[in-house]
Amino acid sequence: MAEQKPLKILMMGGRRCGKTSALASLFEQMVNGPVKNYFTVSDQTVLETKDGETQDSLNGKFLELKQMLGKPHTKTFLVDKGPTNNFWNYSLKLQIPGTDKSMFLEFRDSAGEFFEAGGAHSRETNDYVSECDVFVIIVDTPYLMGCNEEESKELCTEAINLGTNRINDIHGFLTNINDNDGQDAKMVVFVPLKCEKWAKEGRIDEVTARVKTVYEKTIKALSAYKKMTIGIIPIETAGNILFAEFKDAYTITGKIGGTKRCCKISETIVRLEDGTPKKIKDTDIINEDDKAVISGTSLMRPYAWYNINPNDPSYSPKNCEQLPLHILHFMFGKYKEIENRKEKGGFFSFLKGLWDRICAVFGKIKIDELDKILTKMRTDGVIKNSGDGIEYIQKCY
């Protein structure tokens, strides 16, 4: 048997879009949600340090989310902490309970600047694209919806959305996907995050529709592949942290206390990033936040501010587990298709290499037992095929 290898999943998205927090809730829901009745899930990530920056743990991000939910619902605050400047791999182990049969999902969480076309990381990112079967496009929903909302369209224009979500840059990288003329199926999933406000208002289908509009060029290009699955799966990372408003991005530097992000409430008062109002002193220096400039452009991204749901401050993530389950379903279909082609004979060198690679991903897990588990999960409603904004534009299997 070939050495077991992880299923590589590339997460693509803009700066501070919430990729790591979403992974933390994904893991928590896989461990404590209904998935635990079908798979035992464990975090096998080996945390790294690069260029003096230490990788966030999934447990640390989960505790950070829980801490945010403890804020008073009267406060309006920023949810994005310091952005990463590197890429990090997170490894989840899925094991059939009571057996030694397992597989690994490896999510590569990259900084938004990795998806700047022609940037310093272009070659590295393109090389990784060639290694992956699954691509997850993280969409920062408030910026996606900004120019469609009457109250925010002046601050969050379509240009701000394009730059924040790196839409054109990501399109360029996705054109490097190689499905080997339909013999090597690929999957691309658009995942709107921070969409709780629209979900609570019963408007999550508007988010899905907006994804299809904004990413129309990318979706059209992907649809031209002979073997390409394209889906949209909105995720509520915390469930009750709701987008509130956009404000121009500023920093305040005091005589004592360093520099903090803020927005102007009036000419004399600012709101600090933790939601605390502060009266401006003569010794305070207020500047536009140069870190809010969208990389590769001269555009200033406004800050997105959030509130805690006053009616329910609980940690209530939704559909976080759907992403890995749909990925697993796709890979099962790919596994089954290649096995069927193998049994029909004429299994030339490329297909042999592809078969070996897929077998290395699934390890000791056999196709019939995986089929049984996935069928039971669909029958039990654990895997959702629609609703909550979930939609497939194109499906291989």
Supply the key terms:
5-stranded antiparallel β-sheet, 8-stranded mixed β-sheet, globular, 397 residues, Rossmann fold, alpha+beta, 2 domains
Describe what you observe in this structure:
The chain is built from twelve helices and 17 strands. With 397 residues, it is of the alpha+beta class. It folds into two domains: 7-241 and 313-394, 3-Layer(aba) Sandwich (Rossmann fold); 245-308. A hairpin with a 6-residue loop joins strand 5 and strand 6 (102-110).
| Shape annotation | globular
| SSE succession | EHEEEHEEHEHHHEHHHEEEEEEEEHHHE
Q: Helical percent range? A: 25-40%
State the separation between the terminal residues, measured CA to CA. Answer: 26 Å
Rg, Å, rounded: 22 Å
What name does the CATH topology of the largest domain carry? Rossmann fold
Query: Main sheet: which strands, in order across?
Result: 2-5-6-1-7-8-9-17
The CATH fourth-level homologous superfamily of the largest domain: P-loop containing nucleotide triphosphate hydrolases
Instruction: State the secondary-structure class.
Output: alpha+beta
How many domain regions? Answer: 2
CATH architecture title of the largest domain: 3-Layer(aba) Sandwich
